[in-house]
């Protein structure tokens, strides 16, 4: 197996690591690569769309799944699909939408891989009824650190299955995924956008659409003055009639390599946010969008993460339970406002229920995502936000995280002990690891 | 709708390599049926399933080992029978297998030199010799062989590999003449550095080209029945310069 010295970062470009990389093209090579791993450990990396350090392993090894991109089986009648881990959401959409099938749960970028989606148990804009990605997984083939390949499912080695859903790649290398696609005659959605004046109005609007709309998501102007705290736009969408004409994704463009770090400051972000909300008329607007355009709005600008300059940015995403959510959200937004730090697109969604994995992020409630360019003092703000989340019984999403504390993590993920017990069994020597796993001491006590 | 490769069956030898995989996908998207052949049967079955699902074309998997002491005659016959089952179907061949042990290892262990020669030269000659009569009798097909710029000039870094490829290049010149009469074209594609599992992480690789682009070029050259092509194209000039340097100087250069 050939190994190559590489330097890779998380999507937020705050965390960067030098590693030895293998890029297997078939299962045998994956096994050979894993067999060569010593104490330095190995992390698996899919599309590299995690923002922080989940797919990094500084000073150690990394296994790239990009060339494991084959579709292994598809049943036209049941929608059951089997793929290799490096297949992306964008590719599945391109191939199966014309045949009347869609991936039931997708993150906001088509560049994420199916392996990465399992390992983070990702959610979409339809969590209230569709659940998390892991809820649609039928079985997984998992290459264990011992070199053995096992099939795991709710019926076979269920505990290992539940540890692997949202398992951050720490239980084994996922080499095949079986899942069910959803039948859809529609090729796009009808989107309705409305402006809302403040947080109460926004939550009421989101709450109303939870049980009635297919997709819902809201954009918050995180720099609104105190009296309009939480104002923004609520976007809801439903499958469009088959004869609709859709606006499709614009031609792909690439972000310039060097954007000055000062480009995004509180003034430019304020202007952006104002423009973003004003582009919708007060009475709202309605459009028909192709699925690609609707689901992956940012994918038409390649490497958009360079917008934040060399120092990169942090994304902070948390979920707060229904009951304490409104108070918690208010406090989070106030904390951000007080810090006078620019959060560019801030996103609010509802989630329907707990994910099935031991370390699944989802729980019933509201999920808020904010981003902050890295400046001195951003870490202090992130620590304050973590505190608010803890106080309101919420959780920080590890796919986005680069700053959570160990005790915060342990308090937010109550099934951590069960997860550790599985790791102790399948990987006693800690061959699979990551910068995130070390930072949060996920293996501690195993 | 008729696609450019409708009515063709591409036999892909060494179907596990990344260039072969990309080539097979493209050919099937272009309407071709496929015979995928190689040693790692389980892996090739995965590629076959993938291409069937993506394109709906017919894809068969055959076991093939480049080692000439395995049954190449029987293999060629099996290919003939598969294609003969469809009236008027062309048989085309993409030969993509190869082995590149490091020269350092070869210097230490002659069996590795032997392996490089067997796979890259003898094995290729053996299977092409067995397929030639089939191609002649079916007429009109296309043969594309992926070789290497390393065959254009011997260098200290990889001269056993290079000499096997040089031998193959010469063999292909003769085969081209022989098959021409039957309307069968033979295309030699001399590849520079490709971004494949074989070269991944090797020192001294510059301007590595993605395998998908190489596959696209191979298919395009086949369509035009080109004789000899370089991929990426700039290697034609690089090699022209390297070949022009007198041996007396070349032996002292660091690029040797
Ligand atoms: C623009 C954008 C929008 C996003 N929107 C959403 C969203 O709406 N909802 C959401 O939930 N997330 C969202 N995300 C986050 C993203 O979906 C997750 O980070 C996802 O895990 C990325 O997949 P990836 O293939 O890039 O994985 P990577 O970032 O490469 O890896 C993620 C984790 O998966 C593990 N992993 C990857 N492949 C394997 C494998 N084969 N076997 C075992 N472990 C593996 C890695 O070790 C790592 O721990 C978004 C990200 C971006 C950049």
Layout of secondary structure:
The complex is a heterodimer of chains A (446) and B (256).
Chain A: E1 4-9, E2 16-22, H1 27-35, E3 42-45, E4 61-64, E5 71-74, E6 80-83, H2 89-96, E7 101-102, H3 114-120, H4 127-130, E8 137-143, E9 149-152, H5 158-164, E10 173-180, E11 182-183, E12 188-196, H6 199-210, E13 215-220, E14 232-239, E15 253-254, H7 266-278, E16 285-290, H8 291-295, E17 301-302, E18 313-321, H9 325-339, E19 346-351, E20 365-373, H10 378-391, E21 395-396, H11 406-412, H12 416-426, H13 435-439
Parallel strand pairs in A: 2-4, 3-4, 15-17
Antiparallel strand pairs in A: 1-2, 5-6, 6-10, 7-11, 8-9, 8-10, 12-14, 12-16, 13-14, 13-19, 18-20, 18-21, 19-20
Chain B: E1 8-13, H1 18-29, E2 33-38, H2 41-55, E3 59-63, H3 72-84, E4 90-95, H4 103-108, H5 110-138, E5 142-148, H6 159-180, E6 185-191, H7 211-223, E7 228-231, H8 235-244, H9 247-250
Parallel strand pairs in B: 1-2, 1-4, 2-3, 4-5, 5-6, 6-7
Helix pairs in contact in B: 1-2, 1-7, 3-5, 5-6
The structure holds flavin-adenine dinucleotide (FAD).
Write up what this structure looks like:
The complex is a heterodimer of chains A (446) and B (256). With 446 residues, chain A is α+β, with helices and mostly antiparallel strands. Chain A has helices at residues 27-35, 89-96, 114-120, 127-130, 158-164, 199-210, 266-278, 291-295, 325-339, 378-391, 406-412, 416-426, 435-439, and strands at residues 4-9, 16-22, 42-45, 61-64, 71-74, 80-83, 101-102, 137-143, 149-152, 173-180, 182-183, 188-196, 215-220, 232-239, 253-254, 285-290, 301-302, 313-321, 346-351, 365-373, 395-396. Chain A is globular and about 60 Å long. Chain B has 256 residues and is of the alpha/beta class. Chain B has a single domain (8-250), classed as Rossmann fold. Chain B has helices spanning 18-29, 41-55, 72-84, 103-108, 110-138, 159-180, 211-223, 235-244, 247-250, and strands at 8-13, 33-38, 59-63, 90-95, 142-148, 185-191, 228-231. In chain B, strands 3-2-1-4-5-6-7 form a seven-stranded parallel sheet, with helices on both faces. In chain B, helix 2 links the parallel strand 2 (33-38) and strand 3. In chain B, helix 1 (18-29) runs parallel beside helix 2, helix 1 (18-29) packs across helix 7 and helix 3 (72-84) runs parallel beside helix 5. Chain B is globular. The N and C termini of chain B lie far apart (51 Å). The chains are: A alpha+beta (446), B alpha/beta (256). Chains A and B meet through helix 1 and strand 5 of A and helix 2 of B. Flavin-adenine dinucleotide binds at residues 11, 43-50, 54-55, 65, 85, 107-109, 112-113, 115-117, 119-120, 122-124, 168-169, 173-174, 298, 399, 434 of chain A.
């Amino acid at each position: 197996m050939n190994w190559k010295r590489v330097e890779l970062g998380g999507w937020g470009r705050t965390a960067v690591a030098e590693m030895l990389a293998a890029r297997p093209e078939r299962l045998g090579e994956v096994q050979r690569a894993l067999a060569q791993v010593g104490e330095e450990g190995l992390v698996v990396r899919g599309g590299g769309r995690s923002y922080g350090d989940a797919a990094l392993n500084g000073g150690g090894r990394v296994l790239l799944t990009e060339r494991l991109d084959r579709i292994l089986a598809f049943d036209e009648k049941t929608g059951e699909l089997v793929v290799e881990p490096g297949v992306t959401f964008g590719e599945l959409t391109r191939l199966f939408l014309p045949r009347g099938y869609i991936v039931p749960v997708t993150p906001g970028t088509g560049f994420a891989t199916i392996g990465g989606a399992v390992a983070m148990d990702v959610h979409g804009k339809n969590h209230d009824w569709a659940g998390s990605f892991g809820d649609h997984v039928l079985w997984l083939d998992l290459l264990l650190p011992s070199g053995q390949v096992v099939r795991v499912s709710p019926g076979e080695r269920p505990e290992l299955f539940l540890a692997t859903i949202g398992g951050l790649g720490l239980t084994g290398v996922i080499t095949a995924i079986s899942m069910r696609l959803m039948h859809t005659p529609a090729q796009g959605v009808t989107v309705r956008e409305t402006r809302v004046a403040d947080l109460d109005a926004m939550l009421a609007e989101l709450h109303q659409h939870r049980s009635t709309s297919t997709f819902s998501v809201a954009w918050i102007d995180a720099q609104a003055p105190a009296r309009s705290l939480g104002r923004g736009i609520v976007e809801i969408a439903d499958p469009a009639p088959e004869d609709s004409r859709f606006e499709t994704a614009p031609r792909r463009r690439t972000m310039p390599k060097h954007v000055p770090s000062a480009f995004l400051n509180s003034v430019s972000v304020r202007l952006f946010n104002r423009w973003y909300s004003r582009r919708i008329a007060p009475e709202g607007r309605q459009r028909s969008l192709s699925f690609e355009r609707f689901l992956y709005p940012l994918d038409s600008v390649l490497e958009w993460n360079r917008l934040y300059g060399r120092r990169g940015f942090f994304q902070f995403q948390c979920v707060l339970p229904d009951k304490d959510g409104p108070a918690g959200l208010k406090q989070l937004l106030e904390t951000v406002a007080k810090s006078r730090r620019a959060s560019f697109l801030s996103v609010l969604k509802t989630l329907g229920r707990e994910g099935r994995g031991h370390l699944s992020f989802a729980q019933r409630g509201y999920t808020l995502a904010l981003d902050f360019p890295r400046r001195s003092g951003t870490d202090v703000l992130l620590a304050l936000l973590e505190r608010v989340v803890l106080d309101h019984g919420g959780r920080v999403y590890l796919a986005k995280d680069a700053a959570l504390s160990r005790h915060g993590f342990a308090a937010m993920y109550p099934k951590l002990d069960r997860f550790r017990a599985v790791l102790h069994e399948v990987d006693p020597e800690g061959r699979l690891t990551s910068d995130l796993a070390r930072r949060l001491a996920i293996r501690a006590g195993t | 709708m008729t696609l450019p490769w409708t009515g063709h069956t591409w036999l892909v030898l060494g179907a596990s390599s990344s260039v072969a995989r990309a080539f097979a996908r493209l050919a099937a998207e272009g309407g071709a049926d496929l015979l995928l052949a190689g040693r790692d049967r389980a892996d090739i079955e995965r590629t076959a399933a993938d291409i069937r699902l993506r394109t709906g074309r017919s894809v068969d998997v055959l076991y093939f080992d480049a080692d000439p002491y395995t049954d190449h005659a029987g293999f060629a016959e099996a290919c003939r029978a598969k294609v003969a089952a469809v009236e008027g179907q062309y048989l085309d061949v993409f030969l993509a297998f190869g082995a590149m042990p490091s020269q350092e290892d070869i210097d230490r262990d002659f069996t590795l030199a032997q392996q490089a020669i067997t796979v890259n030269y003898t094995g290729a000659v053996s299977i092409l010799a067995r397929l030639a009569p089939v191609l002649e009798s079916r007429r009109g097909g296309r043969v594309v062989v992926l070789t290497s710029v390393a065959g254009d000039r011997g260098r200290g870094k990889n001269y056993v590999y290079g000499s096997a490829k040089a031998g193959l290049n010469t063999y292909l010149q003769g085969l081209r003449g022989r098959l021409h009469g039957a309307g069968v074209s033979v295309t030699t594609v001399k590849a520079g550095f490709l971004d494949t599992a074989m070269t991944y992480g090797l020192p001294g690789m510059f301007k590595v080209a993605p395998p998908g682009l190489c596959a696209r070029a191979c298919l395009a050259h086949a369509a035009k029945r080109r004789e000899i092509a370089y991929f990426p194209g700039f290697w034609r000039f690089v090699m022209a310069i390297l070949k022009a340097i007198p041996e007396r100087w070349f032996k002292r250069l660091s690029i040797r």
